[in-house]
Specification:
The complex is a heterodimer. Chain A is an alpha+beta fold. Chain A has a domain at about 50-185. Helices cover about 30% and strands about 15% of the residues of chain A. In chain A, helix 5 (about 150-165) links the parallel strand 6 and strand 7. In chain A, helix 3 runs antiparallel to helix 5 (about 150-165). Chain A is elongated. Chain B has three domains: about 15-175, Beta-Lactamase (2-Layer Sandwich), CATH 3.30.450.20; about 235-325, Helix Hairpins, CATH 1.10.287; about 335-480, 2-Layer Sandwich (Heat Shock Protein 90), CATH 3.30.565.10. Helices cover about 50% and strands about 20% of the residues of chain B. Chain B has a five-stranded antiparallel sheet with strand order 2-1-5-4-3, with helices on both faces. A five-stranded mixed sheet of chain B has the order 7-9-10-12-11, with helices on one face. The two termini of chain B are about 35 Å apart. The relative contact order of chain B is 0.06. The chains are: A alpha+beta, B alpha+beta.
């Protein structure tokens, strides 16, 4: 009886010793593990001659595209900018009204080729956009259509385009007002590490306030 | 006497258990060490490869320029360019942007990249990797979301996610080699552990074997057996205790034997001392007996009583001396080849038991080597007892019987009476000295030593004697003596 129990105990010990030996041989699968920051590539974006438009990508997110406004004196600006070697805002940035009109113009051919689309209604011919700077880094924009009925993506497209047109870092509170008098305000919040928007934000949960853990490898 | 072989064959003997314990300890320690080393080394190998791959992939992507929106044409060339700079192993680069899918390989979409990695990269613009084993081949899949600078201090996710898929074949080979090394290190360790295990088993088993041999030797009567005490461990203590115990046992047995010897000698001396005066008394009582008729009635009765009791005393003393000789092992067998039937007839004749009280069934021609005097005592005692305590007629039967193969032929002499038989309670003690079967007749004519002397005489012949009852009533005593007719010599 005792011997049997001893034998059973010995077998358990041997089992416990062998299991870790056999259990983890070879290369095991892992979960997706975060490892460092994103890759930052060179997009050659020049705020003085180009504008950032935000379109809707097939997965529902926003994709920024760089667009050169068609009626801008690109060549002159380019020369001017190159001559000044991009020193602080000597050139005039492209007006926000132009950026919003370009956004309302919808995705271009190459944008559509990449599967980008817009949630905004088509621009009304002759419609005008009025942009007004408010104290405290706020921008008020009057839009030539009804805000009521627009989805979140449409509001975010507008907010981000206006924000990045006004500020290189997009940290501006944007107030949108439609023809119907409905108004929405919020921040773009697409940039990593930017804090969430305040007030009546169109993007409720799109805040990218994430802690950044150190790069881990497994 | 196959104890040595038995201990060697025993499955769960001390040796097996000691070896097993040593092996177990060695296995656990070697296994644990090997397993831990292996795991650490594997982690290090994988970590190096992963970190190198993730870092170099990020660096290569950062050195590449993309237009926004990303254009499908020319994208594959850019990806192939990225794939050429793979490090540490060749990788395939996949790009996902909007609905664009492109790769440096043949398929624009990888089958290895998991949805988890995709969603991790989409949800959080940070680099991520995942190890995937597909069809037994381990892959490292890296997701690298891209951002671009909108200002010197600010970046914006571009929506372009690049993936690298790298086979970890080299790492697998390295890790398999690690496993082999761990195993090749652990197994000889186990083999080496057998040696101290065997030595330990030997050091324990040798004293145990000696102890067992000593105990057996003591059991067979050699009380002077001692063990050589080696060392000062527990087994040495055991050996020392064993030696002390045997010493005490030997002393006790010696004292016991001496006491017994003294008692025997005392009985022998007493009977010797009694014999001489008794001889004188017997001579006197014979004279008195002869003259008793001339005395008055009362005196004559007293004289005859004295004479009879003296006679009994003389018989008792003779029997005592006889039994003392047996106890002192001084009794000798003066064997002679005799005709057994003739010997029995002589005995009956000498005792005047020739009338119809004693019937005989004595086949002629049975010859055996017997001590005639002792055999005479045996037969006379048994027949006398039967006549005295049982009822006539008494039957004396003689026969031979072949025993089991290899054992000698037995000469069987049965003496049966026609009395009430022996009570079962009496049977175990019937051959005891001074045992009286009939408690009421304590003062019987016998000395009380008759059957004891019979038993000793039969034993001296190498035979046995049994008492029992016949099914038809009456006690029966059977004497079985091995028949040595041929080859006994002389």
């Amino acid at each position: 009886m005792r011997r049997a129990r001893t034998r059973r105990r010995a077998a358990a010990v041997a089992f416990a010793a062998v299991v870790p030996l056999l259990g983890g041989c070879g290369i095991q699968e892992t979960d997706a593990i975060e490892a460092g920051g994103p890759a930052s590539f060179q997009a050659f974006f020049d705020r003085n001659q180009e504008i950032l438009l935000f379109f809707r990508s097939p997965d529902g997110g926003l994709s920024p595209v760089i667009r050169t406004p068609p009626d801008s004196s690109v060549f002159d600006g380019y020369v001017e900018g190159a001559g000044e070697e991009n020193t602080d805002d000597t050139a005039e940035p492209i007006p926000t009204e132009k950026a919003v009109l370009a956004l309302l113009g919808g995705p271009a051919k190459e944008d559509r080729a990449a599967g980008l689309s817009t949630s905004l209604p088509a621009a009304l011919p002759g419609g005008s956009v009025k942009v007004e700077l408010l104290p405290g880094g706020r921008v008020a924009t009057l839009l030539p259509f009804f805000l009521e009925g627009l989805d979140t993506t449409a509001l975010r497209q507008l907010t981000c385009t206006i924000a990045y047109s006004q500020d290189a870092e997009g940290q501006v509170v944007v107030e949108l007002t439609g023809q119907d008098g409905v108004s929405r305000s919020g921040t773009c919040g697409l940039a990593p590490n930017s804090t969430g928007s305040t007030g009546n934000t169109p993007e409720e949960t799109e805040t990218r306030a994430r802690p950044t853990p150190p790069a881990t490898t497994g | 006497m196959s104890g040595g072989e038995r201990s060697r064959v025993r499955v769960f003997g001390l040796r097996t258990r000691l070896l097993f314990a040593f092996l177990l300890v060695a296995a656990v320690s070697a296994g644990t060490t090997a397993a831990l080393t292996y795991r650490e080394a594997r982690t290090a190998v994988l970590k190096t490869a992963q970190d190198t791959a993730v870092t170099s992939f990020r660096e290569q992507v950062q050195l590449t320029g993309f237009s926004l929106p990303v254009r499908g044409e020319g994208l594959e060339d850019v990806l192939r360019d990225l794939a050429r700079k793979s490090k540490p192993h060749p990788w395939v680069v996949f790009a996902e942007y909007g609905s664009l899918r492109a790769s440096s390989g043949e398929n624009p979409v990888s089958t290895v990249i998991t949805p988890e990695l995709r969603s991790a990269a989409r949800a959080n613009p940070r680099g991520a990797f995942e190890r995937v084993v597909k069809d037994g081949v381990p892959y490292l899949t890296i997701a690298m979301p891209t951002v671009f600078k909108t200002s010197p201090d600010s970046v914006l996710p571009s929506g372009l996610v690049l993936y690298a898929v790298m086979r970890m074949t080299d790492e697998q080979i390295t890790i398999d080699a690690l496993l082999m090394a761990a195993r090749d290190g652990a197994l000889p360790g186990l083999a080496v552990a057998l040696i101290p295990g065997l030595l330990a088993a030997r050091s324990v088993l040798r004293p145990v074997r000696e102890l067992r041999q000593a105990a057996r030797s003591m059991g067979s009567g050699r009380l002077d057996t001692r063990i050589v005490v080696r060392g000062s461990d527990e087994l040495a203590d055991l050996a020392r205790t064993f030696n002390e115990s045997t010493g005490q046992l030997e002393r006790s047995v010696r004292e016991l034997r001496e006491a017994e010897e003294r008692a025997r000698r005392f009985a022998s001396d007493v009977s010797h001392e009694l014999r001489t005066p008794l001889a004188g008394m017997l001579a006197v009582t014979e004279v008195l007996d002869e003259d008793a008729d001339g005395l008055d009635a009362d005196t004559a009765r007293a004289v005859r009583l004295v004479s009879a009791e003296t006679g009994k005393l003389a018989v008792l003393v003779e029997d005592l001396m006889e039994i003392s000789r047996f106890d002192a092992r001084a009794a000798e067998l003066n064997a002679d080849e005799v005709d057994v039937a003739e010997a029995i007839r002589n005995t009956l004749q000498n005792r005047h038991w020739t009338d119809d009280r004693v019937r005989t069934e004595l086949p002629d021609g049975i010859r055996a080597r017997l001590d005639p005097r002792r055999f005479d005592v045996v037969i006379a005692n048994l027949v006398g007892n039967a006549l005295k305590h049982g009822d006539a007629p008494v039957t004396v039967r003689l026969r031979t019987e072949a025993g089991a193969p290899g054992s000698p032929v037995l000469l069987i002499t049965e003496v049966a009476d026609s009395g009430p038989g022996l009570q079962p309670a009496v049977l175990p003690h019937i051959f005891d000295r001074f045992y009286k079967a009939d408690a009421a007749r304590t003062r019987s004519a016998g000395s009380g030593l008759g059957l004891a002397i019979t038993l000793e005489n039969v034993k001296l012949h190498g035979g046995t004697i049994h008492a029992g009852n016949r099914p038809e009533g009456g006690a029966v005593f059977a004497v079985e003596i091995p028949l040595h007719v041929e080859g006994a010599g002389g």
